[in-house]
Amino acid sequence: MNILELHNLKKYFATQKAVDDISFSIKQGSIFGLLGPNGAGKTTLIRMITGIFYPDSGNIILNGKKFDALNDSLHIGYMPEERGLYKKMKIGEQALYLAQLKGMSRSDAMSNIKEWFVKFGMETWWNKKVEDLSKGMSQKLQFVTTVLHQPKLIILDEPFSGLDPVNANLIKDEIFNLAKKGSTIIFSTHRMEQVEEICDHIILVNKGNKILDGTVTNVKQEFKENVYRIGARILPEQLMTHIFEVVKLEPEQLLLKLTHDTQPNDVLKYFINQGVNIHSFNEVLPSLNDIFIRLVEGTAKARQFQSIN
Amino acid sequence: MSKVGLIIGREYFSRVKKKSFLVTTILVPLVIIGFYAAIIAITVKGSSDKQSVAILDEANLFNGKVEMDTTKDKNIDFRFVQNVSESAYVKKYKDAGYNAFLYIPPFNIDSPSNFKLHTQAATSLSTNAAIEDVINKAIENKRLVSQGIDPKKYKQIASDISLKNIDDTKKEGAANSVMAAYVVSFACGILIYMMMIIYGTQVMRGVTEEKTNRIAEVIVSSVKPFQLMMGKIIGIGAVGLTQFAIWIILLSLMQFAIPLIFPEMLHQAASVAANPGATSKAAEFFSGVATLPLFKIAVSFIFYFLGGYLTYASLFAAIGSVVSEDQQEAQQLVFPILMPIILGFVIMTKAVNDPNSSLAVFGSLFPLTSPIVMMGRITYDIPAWQLVTSGVLLVGCFLLFTWLTGKIYRIGILMYGKKPSWKEMIKWGFRKG
């Protein structure tokens, strides 16, 4: 079942087509990666999903019904890239206030806050102020305030920036936990290695358009270049063959790009016939980082201003 | 609890719970009242150090005796010196224990001149005036005698009255004091002026803080921007009303408390009462205040404070929403908003003197100046149609501004980077949807 469907969403600003006809859907309980270079339109897209902006045209369907910003915002938890908290407010009161704004009762909010504070080791923070916290600490607090009201849809914009590996893992585990309990997570980042690790499904936007959509495995398959790595103690010096090209020669291993029609077994046969003792052979799939760079490269480094009529 | 209620609560309690709120609310009026009490105490007591003045009276102006108004000038002690020259005694009077040395050379009674007062430091204005007074009196007496008039007779003849103004449009028996009306009007006008600026800028700072902290983005994902703006404005307005309430309670407590804490002040007042003229003014002022329509003043004050505050607060909120970090930007944008407030203040100072001039009437109807100007006229009789028109215009203006600025705010609060121009902001305000 799709928790969120976007149909032909458009949002134009005075000088830019921030989001230009984007459609996609997200399955409930999945972790969805929203990728794109700076200024691609990710934030605008997220702001439409959170109800901060109204789309110029197109539909947002949340949970099978047309998105109603006023009531549905209660089911959404949003953690913006630029963290925002009241600096002078006490941490406990702040969490309580934000949870109540999301429509929780005071007592429910209290018990949830206590639970999360214990989970993250923040029990002693209650009467401290945000200005007393380090960047990583306020990051954790921001995450807690985002998920406190048990939203069905959680939108995290660069959730790991500024966190040390221990705390990053803590939050990563919570993200998996939340997804397991049925929450859907939209995860926006530039850090491709995190996407590979966490996300089930990704889309890539650039210049306001969707240029890639699929599961991580499918995308990698789609962009694979028939590159294999073969490992052996001693590799022949001369490789005279038309079935592959050598991409890279390394000590004890070779990166090969198979020519058209060549099967991996042909390569193996070739080396076996040469009397090479193979100890490894595997396909090299492109990293999301490579795919990202390949797709975005060639477009201008920054978005240009355009006139909209 | 509704979401706007939550926001109002946060804005209200986060301010009221601060120590600085209690300090400013309670301490500021105490300091002001204490300051005035000190001034009154000093003027009642007079300066404490006794001045002694040596007089070398070569013209025999005083006939060896200084006639003084004992109630006023009792702190100056005059002694006559004889058989010395001015130039010789100038060097000696200090060692002889005098603060000052007054030299009166022989002079022509029709054009007296060349009186000199030698001192070691410049004398105070009041001492100077007191000594001049003494000399003038002596010369007058001399002149009276030379014209064949008995100075005692003249004293009986001379007159010193104070005029009492009674406004006949007032109900019978309600003697109106122009002085009291003037002071109360002026005070109300200034208070509204100050409160509008103080609380307006608080709204602006609060909005800018939310924007630069980026908390605004989190909050507008759960409430509408308009709710956030109204919550802030109402919450801060409630802080203002709380401050009023505390002041009114303090003032009424003070009326009972002061005579208990400072019983000597009553004595002072009583001793002053022996000297008519000075007290009659003060007494007249307080009885005049009592005759003013205090209830009407209080109700109008609250109405015009709320109306004026709400009208301007929405403008301040819009300004706060479009500026980013730079406080200088805010200063530039705020200036056009402060102008009508200052204009209102200027008209108010005219209106308290001439409450029915066309400028005052215009100022008290025009919604951007009416809160200040109308309070400047409030102690006078204002035609009902003017009160109603002014109120309706003010409420209408508030609704219009809130509607327009709400849209500017909604866009501004999520915009970072370049500060928009006035043209862009007005365009946002009138944009549909």
Describe this entry's structure for a reader.
Chain A has ten helices and 14 strands. Chain A is of the alpha/beta class and 309 residues long. In chain A, helix 3 packs across helix 4 (106-119). The relative contact order of chain A is 0.15. Chain A folds into two domains: 2-221, 3-Layer(aba) Sandwich (Rossmann fold); 225-284. Chain A has a six-stranded mixed β-sheet, sandwiched between helices. In chain A, strands 2-1-4-5 form a four-stranded antiparallel β-sheet, with helices on one face. In chain A, strands 12-13-11-14 form a four-stranded antiparallel β-sheet, covered by helices on one side. Chain B has two domains: 3-42 and 170-430, no CATH class; 51-155, Periplasmic binding protein-like II (D-Maltodextrin-Binding Protein, domain 2, 3-Layer(aba) Sandwich). In chain B, strands 2-1-3-4 form a four-stranded mixed β-sheet, with no helix packed on it. Chain B has 433 residues and is mainly α. Chains A and B meet through strand 6 and helix 3 of A and helix 1 and helix 8 of B.
Question: Within the largest sheet of chain B, what's the order of strands?
Answer: 2-1-3-4
State the end-to-end distance of chain B: 28 Å
Mean pLDDT of chain A: 85
The residue ranges of chain A in which pLDDT falls below 50 over 5 or more consecutive positions are none
How would you classify the helix and strand content of chain A by structural class?
A: alpha/beta
Strand order of the largest sheet of chain A: 6-7-8-3-9-10
Percent helix of chain B, as a range, is 55-70%
Which secondary-structure class do the elements of chain B indicate? mainly alpha
Mean pLDDT of chain B: 80
Which shape of chain A, going by the Cα principal axes?
elongated
Number of domains of chain A: 2
Largest sheet of chain A: 6 strands, mixed
Main sheet properties of chain B: 4 strands, mixed
CATH topology of the largest domain in chain A: Rossmann fold
Q: Helix tally of chain A?
A: 10
Total strand segments of chain A: 14
The separation of the N and C termini of chain A measures: 38 Å
Roughly how many Å is the radius of gyration of chain A? Answer: 24 Å
CATH architecture of the largest domain in chain A: 3-Layer(aba) Sandwich
**Residue share in helix of chain A:** 25-40%
